[in-house]
């Protein structure tokens, strides 16, 4: 039996996303999840218990973020709280570090980095000032099918016949589980802010040659469109209020449940390329659908998580309970149902956590930092601006740093 | 930084299969690969180097199996050598342990456990006598899609409408890479012996209720069929000799490149169930195809590794080199090509290695032991007997323990 | 406006199958459906009305088969009655023709030609004696995907790298709609007799070079297996009796609901080839699944009617009625559901009817005659013999002409 | 043998599209193709010969459109000539009819009806004035998968849970075969003008309740984007000139090879709906890809012609010639290749021709007239206007009737 240097990880947050990370850490060699903090103490305890059951570390619930920072066994924090708490969470971490409550190597922060450009810049500035290493948690870039497909397509196709010129990515499901996602004021927007961060980066990632920085594929023009297709219909606004509580009032304060963005890029080698990204909370299919395409002169790639190699079929005689056991955001229990057998792997969490553990252990350079997170927020805000104005905008558009979407301000009318 | 109890692993063998395990160990938390032995010293060094590059342990090449056993940091061996060396490898391990050269917790052995029933029983007996824990490495049973699909189908379908009655499994590709696979005398048979061990167990696994032992689904009748469809055609026998060396002479000593087995089971709850298993070295598709189906009165499951969510397309203008970068046993470089993004995970190696590491660390009970491996060999030999006699046999048939297939004896004529 | 020579068609039967032909005639240029006879006069009228609504001819109900023969506008009959009425129907046709009641060019007869070899030979002999042309209605051989796939694979693959050596075909669904199918005495067997006629011919068809006769691919050994997997379970036997009437008593007189046949062929060019055919009434998936594979040294073909380019998804909130509007033998109304948009075309009825109309108009030679139908019945009966004896039989086995399956005799015990 | 009233059809044009119609007429009951005119007399003869070989009529080549009109056996013309000849062709037809050279029941015209709004209006006005019935040939609306999927989705999904709100359609391939398509001046634009006519109508069609007129789903805002992604790259501009002749000079006069349009609709029942349509000449996949989606609150539909139930695989050892035998605009000959077994049926030509034959025989009301064709051209021109201005436009925008795209005027710079 031997010993090796391992990273002690603390998790801020106890929701859906935190659980994905716990599952993922089962496939990470050099890290232990040792602490969880959540404003809801019961949730924190439950999440810590799950971590122990999954045997990813001798995890316990902490009373505060400062306590997490103060535990000498904890080397890095995974920031998985809600968007509206981001600034507060980061301030508490950086305060604790600056005050010497404890030491941290780094912080990994879930997407989006923040609700708007001003907030995102503040997150990055605080972290830099506290001297912390930082990683931006965009799981889809680490999804094995995205990563391996991109490698192969560039190696076999682009090298021989020229770089790709069109990338598409979409994330679509039937709507989030927790009330705060639906509130523009807390979340920062609707589905564009919630999920376009994924797809907008995925298209750029696919268009960028492996080994090259994203700066070689620079956004120059952005066209955004948003709409409320389903959830502001009176019957669905009512359902939403019933499920999420009265504070989610889509009759008065709707948010977009559909968004599409077209990004024109200029590449360092003098080409134009186009990225088309779509997100939806008004999609109904087997469940969460992540998809992408990458096209070049003599090749193409397509990715769709619902084209799974495993499918179940249940006849109308099978009358089981509704659930999400087959796939995230599952919408039916009979008929043909694709199954994503290991969602934490398929959606990129395993590879992502493995990467950032190695980054904080000094074994790898970060592929995504808070600077990348800031850039993504800029693209999202430009898309909102474009949608509000009904025209294509040169990127970055004027006023981007101060911009807050009408949806976030509660003034949007579909 | 914390320390934790870890398993030191030594690997016997340096081929294709050993490399799959090295990749898999990247996703295993509590083990380090510390040693490799191979009769070919250069291969051992190369494999040890790969292990270090993958950062799965401070691995080095050893001069003998006994040396592996003798290293106090090594707690368990993964037996990944060729079939014809199995007895010799196991003898050397057990000798070393018995002589006190070193201590081992256990041995995990690749499939098939041995070339015939007599050999398989000897492997099991030696290991038991040496007091070692043992694990039978059948990766497909651990494939996430198999495991998760089986769980869901039993939980949602069988519990409400009755147990499944038909399982199908197939493993098909265009033929193995190394000469010894093609020689009946060394390998023990043709494709039936090489790959039916997977599919014959997968059908039984699927038909067995999760949490119940395989003994609840007992084989009672077996029908086997073998044929040489492709590789004994003169042109292909010639190609084979050119690629594999003169000792592989399919004109004189062919082995079957196609096999199908039907197993009738009796279940502990009084039902009949059927397993259909097929294997082929004469399949040409995108590459290795693992597939299965499970059918019951109101439900079904289907699995196919080539129905991948990631697909690449290269036009006829893309003229890259032949390779296996898209999928194992890849057969083309243009057209639509499914990509299995992480084969070590998809085929079950990650979950398998994670399980047996936990078994040897005392955290889990083994799901598959050498007894299971012996039982699989019995089924394979019964299938050969049935094929040679052209009739269905009650299981176990007479003379099973002494039986050697005509293909292994070099007397088979297709 | 011009006139052209057209074929007047009369249909014997008014069931499921007759309706498929009516739909198909919408895509046939040179024929009009002018008459229908059924023992149930109301059904005949209804079917004639459907033909008029579909505008495939000024169709009316007839009082007898002889009346159909006697109508001078009717040139050919399509025999779509149940298996147990086949001999009687053919006798009535041939009597009427021989007696000079009317004139016919030919008769097209649905599959299987009859319930056993003796009956099939009698159908063929009567028809020959009456001087009628004859066509054997095996739709799957005319399915566009089968026909076009076979053409391409032979032209591109086999011509360059050698003939195919393995064909698979399966027809699987959840059971027929009408009681007589379930009764061995009336139908002649279970699912093997009902549907293996399709798949057993499809494998031979695929293995035969386009333009060559089936005699170039001759069956030499046959292995059959039958089982009752679902419908003899007490709960399902009860459901069956409730749905089909007391005369369908699977507790006492079960029929097989699963069958598999392996046919070894010898080819005129000196090769062996294998056909694997499977049929099931115990399959539960989206609906009827027709599938096939054809494999050769450097190529393969796969066909699956449920891999449709059109898919619908309905969430658990969509609570519509059970139906078969998406696909034949549909098993669910929510979840992902493949849709076969034009089943009469997809399953081969359009091309089949177009062909036999042209045959009877003297424009084409028949691709399938009653002799082919007799040969298919021989294969099915040999498969039953093999299954009953538990061994592979040389084809044709002894006693084939007199053989009646135990299932047909009511003596089979699963 | 009986006679029936049949439609005599004359075809103007002898290209790719005309051949699709000839194949389709094999499945049309009540029409004969009797004449073909083409400016190239040899092509006309060849096309007439093909019609006779396909046995769709005693077809012969005519010397002029007026001669076609003058033949008393010809009742209707199918207008399949190039876009630049549309006005001239229609004038010649209407002149001949007006002068009494002959009689026609009607004219069916291929899409797009014309190159811009002014021309389209002239086509419609001339036809009306000549007293002819008219049909707009948009095949995709008749594709069985589109038609049947739409019926089912509205019947099962929309009726219970509310109308659909999002439709997507795309037509993508690697570029047209004939030089004039590539010339903005002759064709009227690039890929937007060539193929968006399909997709722009398909999205509206899907969003319209079956049985209701398109007017119930009215376009109110349009956003268009065009780009030249592949063919203006110097290497490809050179290839194009080499293949198409010097008059196709993409270095100087490029046309867009990629276009995307978003159409916002207002529905008669007070909802908003969105249509997203995409077309591409810079797509590389197995071949022509037609796809669509339709989404509503609890359901969705997806259609993709390349998700075919028939697939062939050829290994790298199969070295056949390039072709389009597997699928239109095929891009490879090895690897996995989907096959569209009957393209004339799958793409809607059979059902379309059957419909318009019945329309001209007085048996059905036309589903698409020249008025629909004019409306489609308006949408296309508005999309070009939007793309040129970089903003969303209210529909119809000002100046639409006089608008000619920069691409058509030869002044577009990507």
Quickly list its features:
homotetramer, 414 residues, seven-stranded mixed sheet, 15 strands
What does this structure look like?
The structure is a homotetramer. Chain A is about 35% helix and about 20% strand. In chain A, helix 1 crosses helix 12, helix 5 packs antiparallel against helix 13 and helix 9 (about 190-205) crosses helix 13 (about 370-390). Chain A starts with 6 loop residues before the first strand and ends in a 5-residue tail after the last helix. Chain A has a seven-stranded mixed beta sheet with strand order 12-11-7-10-9-8-15. Chain A has a six-stranded parallel beta sheet with strand order 3-2-1-4-5-6, with helices on both faces. Chain A is built from 14 helices and 15 strands. In chain A, strand 9 (about 260-265) and strand 10 form a beta hairpin. The first copy, chain A, is of the alpha/beta class and about 425 residues long. Chains in contact: A-B, A-C, A-D, B-C, B-D, C-D. At the A-D interface, strand 8, strand 9, strand 10 and strand 12 of A face strand 8, strand 9 and strand 10 of D. Strand 12 of chain A pairs antiparallel with strand 13 (about 310-315) of chain B, so a sheet runs across the interface.
